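Chapter review: from sequence to fold.
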Amino acid sequence: MDELVFEEFGFASYYSAPPAALVARHFDITDGLVLDSGFSFSHAVPILNSGAQQQYSRRLDLGGKVLTNQLKEVVSFRSWNMMDEFLVINAAKEELCYVAQDFLAELEDTRLPLSEGNKTMIDYVLPTHASDKENRFGYSRPSVPKRAKGDPSQQEQPTLTLNNERISIPEALFHPSDLGLHQGGLHEVIAESIAALPRQLQGRIYNNIVLSGGNCKFPGFEKRLTAELRALAPEEYDLALTMDKDPELSAVKGGLKLALSHDLERHVVTREEYQEEGHRVTAERFYGRAR
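The token string follows.
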């Protein structure tokens, strides 16, 4: 990376940081933990003295891409073949999926017919070449009972009916084994990361957890994660979770905050420093370790 920046592109200076460090800057965190659950992976990264502590970090090999691909497979098996429609299914996932607070109870409710009070079932109208630009990925509408064969009102756009998929897809964030991953859920990843820290710091970290990344936007996510963590955290520790209204932009906002700050110069490494000290200066300044 250093060679690319200074020798290939000839930058005068640069700064590098993991997303969690930028999220911490956005929230002005000195000590805490950032859960970054994004497109490809999910990371729990402790923050101490405003710096990301990579040695205590834990990763879950599950992100939004896996969830979208799983939804693609499920609807392709049950309804239309959507294996080549990642963007459409991703839009449906983001609009319609949510995190159940009591998964098994809500799963049982999805077994009810629509006529008997099923409130989970909903239709997602797929886009066609005739769709306007506003609905190029499709749109949702309340599900209606199936009409009789031959009813002229049946001649309409192809539609996916989503039912238990709305809760079973994001449930994998808490039970990755549902998708064949031999790892703990997000709550267990957080608890494991905090448990690796010195005991005298753990209470402070539990009381300052920040959520970032697009998966945190699922309705019910923060409430469910709080409940799951409360069951794992020692009783004497207070638990507090914080999330930006646009959690997928938290790292970007932190980077912008740094770029506009008066002390930016003391964080960057200049080309002159790199030529004098080599990789050691970037390792120390960006990652807090010597090379």
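Two observations follow directly from the output. Residues 254 and 260 are 10 Å apart (CA to CA). The chain has a mean pLDDT of 89.
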